[in-house]
Amino acid sequence: MHGIVLKGLKDFVVDSYDRDTWQTLQREAELPHRLYVPVTEYPDEDVLTLVETASRLTDLPVPDLLESFGRFIVPPLVETYGIHVDADWTGLELIANVETYIHLALRAKQISTYTPPELEAEWRGTDTVSVVYRSDRQLCHLARGIINGVGDYFDEPYVIEEPRCMHAGDDHCELVVSRAPGV
Ligand code: HEM
Q: Do 44 and 134 have their domain in common?
């Protein structure tokens, strides 16, 4: 996983708790003193081990932690890769365009080390976008958090339904994102 994600995870823990908590987490996860910088690729296991250890230490379920982390990481993602984000988009338009304009562009970068997931987005009317998520990492809880983080960023709250989920035996996850009623 890319360093921007790992660095985001560190910032998430330091922001939510403090620097000592991050160091304790690294120690407990048996990844002490590892520095995460945004331009480097790290093993996926680092993210998973850190999140699982955080879950053990806090008694918070892994899916909830992934979702909170996804929500937290949107501003740094958008600010780092803002060149791929059209200033006129609404949040829902960004979600509909992520694959074509952002994930695909990251994957295609020369000498790319980015491996973002494959998303298929489809409008259902004007207020709903269906997002199909496929990734061996099976991080749909992170995807849900990122979508809600986009909602926070654009001040555009969403209701998300997940009629299909890899964790329930389906071969993909589907997140159906609608603008919250009355907004
Ligand atoms: C709004 C809908 C979005 C969803 C559902 C989504 C989902 C995800 C997920 C779940 C991952 C973790 C990797 C995996 O599961 O295989 C990921 C990685 C990533 N995403 Fe997205 N994302 C979204 C938007 C964005 C935006 C707005 C940006 C940047 C402006 C972005 C940039 C990235 C980057 C840089 C990675 C790391 C790739 C790597 O480790 O190589 N994503 N995305």
A: no
